[in-house]
Each structure stands twice: as structure tokens, then as C-alpha cells.
Amino acid sequence: MNLTPELLDLRDEIEGYARDYGLDFFTTYFEVLPYNLMSMVAAYGGFPTRYPHWRFGMEYERLAKSYSYGLSKIYEMVINNDPCYAYLLEGNTVVDQKIVMAHVYGHCDFFKNNAWFANTNRKMIDDMANHASRIRRYIDLHGLEQVESFIDTCLSLENLIDLHAPFIRRKARDADPDPSAEDREIAEVPQLQVTREYMRGYLNPQDFLEAQRARQAAAARQEERFPPTPQLDVLEFLMLHAPLKGWQQDVLGMIREEAYYFAPQGQTKIMNEGWASFWHTTIMTQRALDPSELIDYADHHSGTVAIQPGSLNPYKIGLELFRDIEDRWDRGRFGPDYADCDDLEAKASWDTGVGLGREKIFQVRRLYNDVTFIDEFLTPEFCARQRLFTFAFNPRADQYVIASREFAKVKQQLLQQLTNFGQPFILAFDGNHDNRGELLLKHRHEGVDLRKDWAGETLGNLYKIWTRPVSVDTRLKEKPRRLRWDEDGYHEKEIPEAELFSPGAP
Amino acid sequence: MVLPIDRDAGRFRQIVRGAIRRNLRKFMTKGELLGKKGKDIISIPLPQIDIPRFRFDTRGQGGVGQGEGEVGDPLGQGDEPGSGKAGDQPGDHLLEAEVTLAELAEIMAEELQLPNIQPRGRKTIETSSDTYKGIRRVGPESLRHFKRTYREALKRQIASGAYDAGNPLVIPIKEDKRYRSLKTETVPQTNAVILYMMDVSGSMGEEQKEIVRIESFWIDTWLRHQYKGLESRYIIHDATAREVDRDTFFHTRESGGTMISSAYLLCRDILERDYPADDWNVYPFHFSDGDNWSLEDTGRCITLLEEYLLPRSNIFCYGQVESPYGSGQFIKDLRQRFQGRPEEIVLSEIKNKDGIYNSIKDFLGKGK
What we know:
The complex is a heterodimer of chains A (506) and B (368).
Chain A: H1 5-20, E1 28-33, H2 35-43, H3 54-68, E2 72-74, E3 76-79, E4 84-89, H4 94-113, H5 124-142, H6 144-155, H7 179-182, H8 200-203, H9 206-224, H10 234-241, H11 246-267, H12 269-288, H13 294-304, H14 314-330, H15 335-340, H16 344-348, H17 357-367, H18 370-377, H19 380-385, E5 388-394, E6 399-404, H20 407-418, E7 425-433, E8 438-444, H21 452-466, E9 470-476, E10 479-486, E11 489-494
Chain B: H1 4-17, E1 28-37, E2 40-49, E3 63-66, E4 92-94, H2 101-112, E5 125-136, H3 146-159, E6 179-189, E7 191-199, H4 206-226, E8 229-237, E9 241-244, H5 246-251, H6 260-274, E10 280-288, H7 295-312, E11 316-321, H8 329-338, E12 345-350, H9 355-364
Parallel strand pairs in B: 7-8, 7-10, 10-11, 11-12
Antiparallel strand pairs in B: 1-2, 5-6, 8-9
Helix pairs in contact in B: 2-4, 4-9, 6-7
């Protein structure tokens, strides 16, 4: 805490407004940092201390350079922690600091209340510092080169986590396997009771019985496998089953923990920024803004929500969606009555005056993530008003062109981009593939191919950890393929269609 | 103050330079920061290393954008959809920066750690320029020097006792007024000429010429930053040489054999005719794929370099681009002949576009 008395007064003022509006947050500490420290903290993902790694240096160079050439600057950083820590940039104007504070309280409220953050570690500042000192100790023991290379290997796999895992209460994992399962015969397929023999063929058709038998046999085979069901949390699988040294297991564990900590921020980028922007505009324009600051405020705010042709600004789209939801629920533009109304004129001037908007957006910020948020609240009217479009690459012109302004296409594209926060679903399928101790992964293909060269290199990293050949089944240009890394490096081969992963299959 | 991150940044730079962890270099991408100079977009190189992960092949996948435009309208080139990167991204605002060519040259100098050029100890041309640096007691009101006028008035009022600290009202009268006036200054000026020579024989493909074009742009930018009156001359050659304008230089495709000496001869003639030795700093740059016609011609080149071009030039730069057809022999011959004379001649091999960076450094890193 190194705020000047003026900033302290400002903070108290803004915090008061935020509470008046019903925002609910952990105690929030602000700190003023000069730009080099701000860049450092930003490079560390918001934390004051991280373990030594070159990628932080890379990010730091990028931030410091773009600031010194006047290309961009970071106004604020805030960490999901209890208490929350937020940073202000030294030398910003008072109005900038006001906006940032109002924005930060929006984030803090979101961190505390959004369901997807419910299981994040709220003492992460301490844990990050612990991770740093543990890794420093491993570096002292094993050498920088070795530890750093291993971290690189782990980072290469860091997106192989299961976003829903923190919410699933599992049964004790290490319970002894049921001994009777070992020698259990494939049970007879249950059949419907037959009283008249001539009906047997109709009640229990032969082909159904056979299909059923095959399914049971497959399920039994799968049970002998590990993992018993395909597992999205590949990192956990590796921690439990890969031949790692003690320190390596610890490092992998830390990387995994940090990945889970950051995941909800990736899952709620649009909502989180939208919510914070909603509150900085609301607090500033309704309460905190001095008339003399109006132009500077407008300048800053328009920079925040500026749109660029090739990308979607989460601040802009999130802010507009929250405003749209508030407006719709204020005027009763929801529910079956509104949906079923065919009279365009009545629909355009629809206003029941229920005034549920504020309540609704608080509920939305609690329950949704970006995927469900877009799925539920993106409307054709909104899409047209915001001039949303999809774009695609035109190879002949060697450039991206606007492909469509149709609502259905925009929504589909957007959801596809956001699903699993833009990462492919890769599952650990068999840790003893072919009974040769090989690791088999499967990619749940949902329309977009993996980038082949990267997949190959990632398999190489996986091989370093697993120490036996590793493969991933996927679809490349419509064809089923198995990408594999073994003693001789990368291979690729054709596989039968049936090998590919589909969600329902055993 | 040394920050803990400085160590990480140092380590990253070492990786980029290839000093350590060489296996990471294959994941290096040439990121860039974009600035704007007038209508042009300027890019500042920013190497990045991507850790490989399972991820989608986004090229050709498209995305969702926002803004005006009809279906079928192009977006800006190379605008990639934003990736859904996990992690806390700071509130990062893009500012549009105006970068002047001079700033660009400085940025480049910083990136490449180029020294400033020491002009040769030759006589310099003097030029005169008029600037408003003097002060007069009469002049048009538009040139009134407000601060000086105020100071005079204050002085007078204090001296005459008319100044009241409680009511600090200062009123200038006619005698207090001061005006800016023109002064003619003579400034010494160093002049420089760059002579670009390029091999346009059949073996130089589009890619090779692109490399030459990019490299000459940066060299031009840097030297313009260092010299006020910079002239550029362009020579193309296959078996014969001729002088052309800039546009032709970059767009010609000829075919035929290669006689490098023809270019050197023409270069000598131009220097003799237009650029007296005492007044000009001379920078010849020659780009070729190194596939000269005959050993005999290479001999002629070496004689020309030895007897005329090297003594006349601040530094002579030869850049050899790699071509699928050429033998690349020429640079080897030069290297053999001029070994141990890096102050006079710089030889640089440019394998591909990535090599440009190092090559510029080779050429301009000497501060000559």
C-alpha cells in the first residue's frame, strides 16, 4: 500500500459507490507501480513473485518495449486472491486512476461471485511464492538447464486439463478394485421375459442381443485398461502414472495447479471484462466523474472498447451484452410471451416495465461462463446492432474476408472459438496400449484439425515424460490418422475410422 | 535497480541469440510490434518463442469480428483471430503510434546495436540556413517574444519601483518589447552517396530480389538518419551494367550471364564523374548470388576493388543471397583475397529473409 492521500480518498470514494451498487468483493489493496515493475508483474501473470523462467522475460520484453515505443500501455492489473491485489500505473492522470479503480472493483466482484471461480485457490499469491522457492531449490540441486527444460516440457502439456474437474466430487480414487471383477465372466445379456416361445425372436431380436454382447465385451476390455474411462485431465494421469522423479512430479504438479488457477480467467474473458467495463462506465458516468474530466474519460473509455476488424474485443462485446441483458429484463423482453409474439411492431415497442434488469445481470455474473453466456444471450437483434460478422481466409486473395453476417453462423463460430477456452479436447485413453506400455491419447474432433507440426512436437515432449512411445488419434483433412512419437521420432499412419474417439463409445 | 525479471529477460535474449537451449530456436517466430508512419505501417521486430502445444490449426479457420463492411470485403491482411489464451491478460490498450523515419532508424539502431557512423575526415560542404534565433527591439507583432518582453517589463518596473508584490501586475510598454529575428547560420554538412548494385541475371529469383529490397530499405533508412544529404544511385547488371531509377532497380528481371566487373566499372565511372573524393562519403552495396561468369572476370573485379573502389569507399559491402542455381563462388574468392581487412570490405551471406537482420548488422555494425 503506497497510495498518496489523494488516491486513498479516491479509493474510499469509488469503493463506496461500488458497494452502493451492490458489488460484493474481498478486501482490495491497490498499489502504485512504475512502468517497469508494472511490466514485470504483468509478465508474471499478475503476481509479484514467480519461479525463474525465460517466458516471463519474453513477455516482459514485449510489454516494456511496446510501452517505450509508445504503442500500448497497461493501465491496470488485478489478481484473483483474498484479499484482492490491484496495481495502478504511476503517473496516470487522476481520471485514469478513477476508471481503473472502478474497473477493478468490477473484476473483484466477479472473482468472488462467479461460480467458475468458486474452486480457485484464493491464497494463490502465497502459493505462487512457494512454487517459486521450491523450483529455485530444485534448480540449486539439479541445475538450471535441466529444471528449465523440464518446465518447458510440462508447459507444452499445460492445456491438457479438465475444466470441469474442480467441480466433480469423485469417489475415493484409490479404493481397492473389486476382486470379483477379475475373474468375472462376461455376463449373459439380460433378456425380456418370454412366456410364449414364438415371441422370443420379436421380444429379444438376435441382432440386438449380439450388439449388446459386443458392447459388454468392449466395456469389460475397457475396464482392464487404465484409465478406466478416457480422462481429460492428462496432466493428472501423467502425475500418477508416468515414471517421474520426485522433483519432476512436484514441478508437474505445480504447473498443473497454476493451469487450473488461470483456467477460469480464460473461460470468462468476455464476461469478466464486460462486467468490469459495465461497472466502470456506470460508476463513472453516474457518480464519480467530474465534469472537467469528461473528455479524458471518453478518450480512455473509447480506447478500451475500440474494435479492430480481425478480432473481437472482449471489453466491447461483454459490456454491450450486459447492457443488452439489463435492458431486455428491464422491459420484460424475455419469456414465452415475448418469444411467441409475431407482431413486429408490438415487439419493437415491447415494454412491460418489470425492471428486473439489475437483478438479472447479477444473476448472470454468478452463474455463467463465456460459452453459456453467448449461447443464452446472443440474440439476432444484438448481432445485427453490433455489426458482428464471421470472417474466413480466402486463399486466392491471400487475405481474410468477411464471410457472413448471419446470426446462426456468427453464433456457431463464436461458440466454437470459446469452447474449452479455445483448446482441443485431448483425452488419455490407454496407458498400456498394445500391452506395450505405450500411451494412447485421443482427440475429440469437433470440426477443426490439430496443427500437425505442433502436435508432433508436443508428442515429442510427452515422450520425454512417458519414456515409451506415445500416440494421438485424430482426424486430419477428413482422414483418420494416428500421430506417433517413438525412439525414431515422429510418424503418422492411417487408422480405421472406428479408432477415432466419439463421446458415446466405450 | 535490478529486477528479478531481468534475469529471465537476459535468459530469453540468450536463447534468441542461440547461445543456450538451441533446440528452442526452432519455435521462434518473428513477432512484431506495429507502429504507423503516416499511412504506412511500420513493424518493430519482436522475436517470440512459442512452446508447442496441442492446438487448432487456425490458419484458414477464420473467426468472428465486429464492424462495418459487406460480405466479401477484405479485412486487414494477416489479421489473425485472437486466440483464447488462458491466463490473466492485463488491460492492454493499443495506442496508435506515429513513428518517424528518424525514430525508426533509432529503434533499428537500438535493436541491432549499431554504432553511429564516423564520417571520414574529409573537407565538408558548408550550407547555410536561416533560423529565428536572434532578438531585436523592433519587428512585427507576430514575432514578438513574449517571455523576453515580459522579463524586460518586469525589470523596468522593479527598477522604477512600480512593482507591487501584493498586486503583481506587469504591463509592458513599447520599449520593453522584444522580437525574434532571423540569423543565418552556416552548418557543416557531410554528404554521402549509396551505390546499390544488383545482379539481375537469370539466376536471381523473386525471393532473392525481395531480400535485396528489404535490406536496401533498412540500409537506406539508417544512412539517411546519419547523413543530411544522402543520394542513392542504382545499378543493375547481368553481363552488362546500366544505371536505372529506383523503381526499375527493384522490379527488373533479366536473364543472361553475369559479369560482375561490368557493374564495378560503371560504379567507378559514376564516382569519377559525380562525386569528387573530397566531398563525399561513399557506400557501395553489391548484391548477387555469387555466380560470376568466369574466374577471369572475378580477377578483374578484384583489381577494380583493390585499385579504385576500396580506397574511395568508406566501406564496401557485398551481400550474397543464396540461390538454388548459383555456385556462390564469388564470395569465396573475395574472402580469400581480402581476408583480414574487415575495415574496408564487408562480406555477408544472406540465406533467407531471416538472414537480413544479421546481414544489416554485418554491414553497418562497424560505424564507418
